[in-house]
Specification:
Elements: H1 9-13, H2 17-35, H3 42-59, H4 66-110, H5 118-127, H6 129-140
Length: 144
Amino acid sequence: MPAKRPLSLDDILRYDDAAVKFLFEHYYVQLVVFAKNWLPDIEDCKDVVQEIFIHIVEYKEPFDSLGKLKAYLYQSVRNRCLKFLRHEEVKQRYAEEMRAVSEDGKAAILMGINTNRTISLTFAIGSGLAGVAAVMYCSAYPQV
């Protein structure tokens, strides 16, 4: 339920409990719906909007007018949604790379190849006893 009386810009910029409650009640739902234009999950939308409110209260952002405050809120939601999507893309790429590395590692293990020792084994084949000593040394002191 919205606050009973609208607050002035000076009241809002004090960021006391009544001002924050007024801003939150007045803009929260609108901003969540706005965030839904970019993010498919409503919970992610809610998180983004809450982060915006936390930011403006923590940093006590100054504004010249309520119109500029509203524009800031909407622009911030848009920017945070885009940042969220970029981060999700990075996480997805990382997961795909890890799956590919995991699959390569599984194939090497199934074939009996230790990927950390391949260079040493090649060296051992080409250089006789010195190479065997190098392989034994690498086996005793595995590289991390």
